[in-house]
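hiii so um. not sure if this is the right channel but i have a protein structure encoded as C-alpha coordinates and i wanna go backwards to a sequence. like what aa goes where. can anyone help
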Protein backbone atom coordinates (compact mmCIF):
# COMPACT_ATOMS: atom_id res chain seq x y z
CA UNK A 1 0.00 0.00 0.00
CA UNK A 2 1.17 3.53 -0.81
CA UNK A 3 1.06 6.44 1.65
CA UNK A 4 1.65 10.13 0.98
CA UNK A 5 3.08 12.27 3.81
CA UNK A 6 2.57 16.03 3.42
CA UNK A 7 4.65 17.47 6.26
CA UNK A 8 7.08 20.39 6.19
CA UNK A 9 8.90 19.48 9.41
CA UNK A 10 11.73 17.42 7.98
CA UNK A 11 12.54 15.53 11.20
CA UNK A 12 8.91 14.48 11.65
CA UNK A 13 8.49 13.52 7.99
CA UNK A 14 11.71 11.46 8.00
CA UNK A 15 10.68 9.70 11.21
CA UNK A 16 7.28 8.81 9.80
CA UNK A 17 8.63 7.74 6.42
CA UNK A 18 11.24 5.49 8.03
CA UNK A 19 8.77 3.89 10.43
CA UNK A 20 6.06 3.33 7.83
CA UNK A 21 8.59 2.04 5.32
CA UNK A 22 9.86 -0.49 7.86
CA UNK A 23 6.23 -1.49 8.47
CA UNK A 24 5.83 -2.51 4.85
CA UNK A 25 4.32 0.60 3.25
CA UNK A 26 5.57 2.48 0.19
CA UNK A 27 5.94 6.11 1.25
CA UNK A 28 6.12 9.36 -0.73
CA UNK A 29 6.72 12.63 1.09
CA UNK A 30 6.72 16.35 0.42
CA UNK A 31 6.92 19.43 2.61
CA UNK A 32 4.89 21.66 0.31
CA UNK A 33 1.09 21.82 0.37
CA UNK A 34 0.76 22.71 -3.29
CA UNK A 35 3.08 19.90 -4.39
CA UNK A 36 1.32 17.51 -2.02
CA UNK A 37 -2.03 18.29 -3.61
CA UNK A 38 -0.58 17.71 -7.07
CA UNK A 39 0.77 14.31 -6.00
CA UNK A 40 -2.51 13.32 -4.36
CA UNK A 41 -4.40 14.21 -7.55
CA UNK A 42 -1.96 12.59 -9.97
CA UNK A 43 -1.11 9.38 -8.13
CA UNK A 44 -3.17 6.62 -6.53
CA UNK A 45 -2.63 6.57 -2.75
CA UNK A 46 -4.22 4.42 -0.08
CA UNK A 47 -3.75 7.07 2.62
CA UNK A 48 -2.61 10.68 3.03
CA UNK A 49 -1.00 11.93 6.26
CA UNK A 50 -1.47 15.68 6.26
CA UNK A 51 -0.15 18.57 8.38
CA UNK A 52 -2.19 21.77 8.71
CA UNK A 53 0.47 24.46 8.61
CA UNK A 54 2.23 24.05 5.27
CA UNK A 55 3.98 26.40 2.83
CA UNK A 56 2.12 27.56 -0.29
CA UNK A 57 -1.13 25.77 0.57
CA UNK A 58 -2.32 24.83 4.06
CA UNK A 59 -3.71 21.45 5.00
CA UNK A 60 -7.29 22.68 5.21
CA UNK A 61 -7.10 23.85 1.58
CA UNK A 62 -5.42 20.63 0.42
CA UNK A 63 -8.20 18.54 1.96
CA UNK A 64 -10.93 20.83 0.64
CA UNK A 65 -9.60 20.58 -2.92
CA UNK A 66 -9.19 16.81 -2.72
CA UNK A 67 -12.81 16.35 -1.63
CA UNK A 68 -14.07 18.92 -4.14
CA UNK A 69 -12.48 16.86 -6.91
CA UNK A 70 -14.08 13.67 -5.65
CA UNK A 71 -10.94 12.09 -4.17
CA UNK A 72 -12.04 9.84 -1.31
CA UNK A 73 -8.57 8.73 -0.21
CA UNK A 74 -8.45 8.45 3.61
CA UNK A 75 -6.80 11.49 5.21
CA UNK A 76 -5.17 11.54 8.65
CA UNK A 77 -4.44 15.02 9.97
CA UNK A 78 -1.22 15.03 12.02
CA UNK A 79 -0.70 18.49 13.48
CA UNK A 80 0.31 20.54 16.49
CA UNK A 81 -3.04 22.35 16.39
CA UNK A 82 -4.76 20.75 19.37
CA UNK A 83 -7.76 23.03 19.96
CA UNK A 84 -11.14 21.31 19.96
CA UNK A 85 -12.32 23.70 17.23
CA UNK A 86 -9.43 22.60 15.01
CA UNK A 87 -10.25 18.91 15.53
CA UNK A 88 -13.89 19.52 14.73
CA UNK A 89 -12.98 21.58 11.67
CA UNK A 90 -10.68 18.85 10.39
CA UNK A 91 -13.24 16.08 10.77
CA UNK A 92 -16.10 18.14 9.38
CA UNK A 93 -13.93 19.09 6.38
CA UNK A 94 -13.69 15.45 5.40
CA UNK A 95 -10.66 14.13 7.30
CA UNK A 96 -10.96 10.54 8.50
CA UNK A 97 -8.87 10.99 11.66
CA UNK A 98 -7.03 13.70 13.60
CA UNK A 99 -3.91 13.15 15.72
CA UNK A 100 -2.09 15.84 17.66
CA UNK A 101 1.69 16.27 17.92
CA UNK A 102 3.76 15.14 19.75
CA UNK A 103 2.75 11.59 19.03
CA UNK A 104 3.94 8.03 19.56
CA UNK A 105 4.69 6.20 16.34
CA UNK A 106 2.85 3.13 17.64
CA UNK A 107 -0.35 5.20 17.78
CA UNK A 108 0.20 6.59 14.28
CA UNK A 109 0.72 3.06 12.97
CA UNK A 110 -2.40 1.79 14.75
CA UNK A 111 -4.50 4.58 13.25
CA UNK A 112 -3.01 4.04 9.81
CA UNK A 113 -3.87 0.35 9.95
CA UNK A 114 -7.40 1.11 11.16
CA UNK A 115 -8.01 3.57 8.31
CA UNK A 116 -6.63 1.18 5.72
CA UNK A 117 -8.93 -1.60 6.95
CA UNK A 118 -12.03 0.50 6.34
CA UNK A 119 -13.99 -0.38 3.19
CA UNK A 120 -13.60 2.22 0.45
CA UNK A 121 -16.35 4.76 -0.02
CA UNK A 122 -18.33 3.78 -3.09
CA UNK A 123 -17.93 6.83 -5.29
CA UNK A 124 -17.38 6.67 -9.04
CA UNK A 125 -14.59 8.57 -10.66
CA UNK A 126 -14.14 8.12 -14.39
CA UNK A 127 -12.17 10.01 -16.97
CA UNK A 128 -12.74 9.69 -20.72
CA UNK A 129 -11.03 10.75 -23.91
CA UNK A 130 -12.38 9.61 -27.27
CA UNK A 131 -13.38 5.95 -26.72
CA UNK A 132 -10.91 5.46 -23.85
CA UNK A 133 -12.35 5.29 -20.33
CA UNK A 134 -10.51 5.01 -17.01
CA UNK A 135 -12.36 3.72 -13.94
CA UNK A 136 -10.09 4.66 -11.04
CA UNK A 137 -12.21 3.03 -8.37
CA UNK A 138 -11.94 -0.37 -10.06
CA UNK A 139 -8.45 0.29 -11.45
CA UNK A 140 -9.63 -0.52 -14.97
CA UNK A 141 -9.22 0.95 -18.44
CA UNK A 142 -11.14 0.20 -21.62
CA UNK A 143 -11.31 1.30 -25.25
CA UNK A 144 -14.52 1.01 -27.21
CA UNK A 145 -15.95 -1.01 -24.34
CA UNK A 146 -13.14 -3.60 -24.46
CA UNK A 147 -11.08 -3.89 -21.29
CA UNK A 148 -7.35 -3.26 -21.62
CA UNK A 149 -5.07 -5.77 -19.90
CA UNK A 150 -2.66 -3.40 -18.14
CA UNK A 151 -0.02 -4.01 -15.51
CA UNK A 152 -0.04 -1.87 -12.35
CA UNK A 153 2.71 0.38 -13.75
CA UNK A 154 0.97 0.71 -17.11
CA UNK A 155 -2.23 1.72 -15.34
CA UNK A 156 -0.30 4.27 -13.24
CA UNK A 157 1.32 5.66 -16.39
CA UNK A 158 -2.01 5.87 -18.23
CA UNK A 159 -3.64 7.48 -15.17
CA UNK A 160 -1.00 10.20 -15.15
CA UNK A 161 -1.39 10.84 -18.88
CA UNK A 162 -5.19 11.05 -18.78
CA UNK A 163 -5.30 13.27 -15.68
CA UNK A 164 -3.08 15.68 -17.62
CA UNK A 165 -4.56 15.06 -21.05
CA UNK A 166 -3.54 17.69 -23.57
CA UNK A 167 -0.45 18.57 -21.52
CA UNK A 168 3.03 17.61 -22.74
CA UNK A 169 4.80 15.67 -19.98
CA UNK A 170 8.57 15.35 -19.94
CA UNK A 171 10.27 12.00 -19.43
CA UNK A 172 11.76 13.24 -16.16
CA UNK A 173 8.35 14.28 -14.82
CA UNK A 174 6.82 10.93 -15.80
CA UNK A 175 9.67 9.00 -14.16
CA UNK A 176 9.33 11.00 -10.94
CA UNK A 177 5.57 10.47 -10.78
CA UNK A 178 5.30 6.83 -11.83
CA UNK A 179 8.63 5.33 -10.72
CA UNK A 180 9.45 7.82 -7.95
CA UNK A 181 13.04 8.47 -9.02
CA UNK A 182 15.19 10.67 -11.18
CA UNK A 183 17.22 9.21 -14.03
CA UNK A 184 19.94 10.41 -16.35
CA UNK A 185 19.41 11.22 -20.01
CA UNK A 186 20.65 7.81 -21.14
CA UNK A 187 17.92 5.91 -19.35
CA UNK A 188 15.00 4.80 -21.53
CA UNK A 189 12.63 3.36 -18.93
CA UNK A 190 9.87 5.82 -19.86
CA UNK A 191 10.25 5.23 -23.60
CA UNK A 192 10.06 1.47 -23.10
CA UNK A 193 6.98 1.79 -20.89
CA UNK A 194 5.28 4.10 -23.42
CA UNK A 195 5.95 1.61 -26.23
CA UNK A 196 4.40 -1.22 -24.21
CA UNK A 197 1.38 0.90 -23.33
CA UNK A 198 0.94 1.95 -26.96
CA UNK A 199 0.86 -1.70 -28.07
CA UNK A 200 -2.21 -2.21 -25.90
CA UNK A 201 -3.83 1.20 -26.08
CA UNK A 202 -3.14 2.45 -29.62
CA UNK A 203 -1.87 -0.28 -31.96
CA UNK A 204 -5.22 -2.12 -32.34
CA UNK A 205 -7.09 1.13 -33.09
CA UNK A 206 -7.08 3.59 -35.97
CA UNK A 207 -7.28 6.61 -33.65
CA UNK A 208 -3.98 7.08 -31.79
CA UNK A 209 -4.12 8.80 -28.41
CA UNK A 210 -0.50 8.83 -27.16
CA UNK A 211 1.68 11.23 -29.14
CA UNK A 212 5.40 11.96 -29.01
CA UNK A 213 6.43 15.61 -28.89
CA UNK A 214 10.00 15.59 -30.15
CA UNK A 215 12.45 17.00 -27.64
CA UNK A 216 9.77 17.45 -24.99
CA UNK A 217 8.03 14.21 -24.05
CA UNK A 218 4.58 12.70 -24.46
CA UNK A 219 0.98 13.87 -24.53
CA UNK A 220 -2.36 12.05 -24.42
CA UNK A 221 -4.94 13.75 -26.62
CA UNK A 222 -7.57 13.11 -29.27
CA UNK A 223 -6.25 14.46 -32.59
CA UNK A 224 -8.99 12.83 -34.63
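sure thing!! here u go:
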Amino acid sequence: MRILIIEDEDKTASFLAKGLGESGYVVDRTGNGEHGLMLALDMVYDLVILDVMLPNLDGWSVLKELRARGRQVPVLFLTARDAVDDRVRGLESGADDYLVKPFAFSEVLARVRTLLRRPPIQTREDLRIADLEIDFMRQRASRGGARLDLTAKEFALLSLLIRRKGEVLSRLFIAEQVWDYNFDSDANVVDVAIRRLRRKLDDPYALKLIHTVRGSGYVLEDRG
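oh and The chain has a mean pLDDT of 86.
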